[in-house]
Amino acid sequence: MQKLERIQERSFRLLLNDHDSNYDQLLAKVKKPTLEIRRIKLLATEIFKTINNLNPSYMKEIFELNTRRDSANKRLIVQSQISMKYGSYTLRSLGPRIWNRLPSEVRNCENLSTFRNLIKAWSGPICHCTSCKYIGMCQ
């Protein structure tokens, strides 16, 4: 992922002919999020479509709504995993973590076009430290 971000940074430098700005400044100039945030937004969109029966039925088996607590809040059950490599980074485990970290107004949208507008405006997770990158330790 870091290599892809580096390639994107180099391409922005080349396109903008700007060799002095840092990566965040380049992203602001082109009005694009990082590749990681784009992947998170894409995953969140697929989860929204699955929850609202817009995806194939086999996707419904991957994500399970948590109806035990607050069913109106549309949170997903996070599956506990034994291994980081083969468990925590799978769609079944990573998807609910990302979904549950979205703001509630984004999660509780009713139609896809409104969701896409809200997720497009969302700037991504607040904390980017390595201990909570996908696990959510700081929040």
Structure report:
The protein has two domains: 1-32, no CATH class; 34-139, no CATH class. 53% of the residues lie in helices and 0% in strands. It is built from eight helices and no strands. The chain has helices at residues 2-16, 23-30, 35-51, 57-60, 84-88, 91-101, 104-107, 112-121. Helix 1 (2-16) packs across helix 2 (23-30), helix 3 (35-51) packs across helix 6 and helix 3 (35-51) packs antiparallel against helix 8. The longest helix is centred in the first third of the chain and has 17 residues, at 35-51.
Distance linking N and C termini: 23 Å
Number of helices: 8
The biggest sheet amounts to:
none
Shape: globular
Low-confidence stretches: none
Q: Helical amount among residues, as a percent range? A: 40-55%
Please specify the SSE layout and strand pairing:
Blueprint: H1 2-16, H2 23-30, H3 35-51, H4 57-60, H5 84-88, H6 91-101, H7 104-107, H8 112-121
Helix pairs in contact: 1-2, 3-6, 3-8
Report a brief summary of the structure:
The chain is an all-alpha fold. 53% of the residues lie in helices and 0% in strands.
Throw out a few tags for this protein:
2 domains, mainly alpha, 139 residues
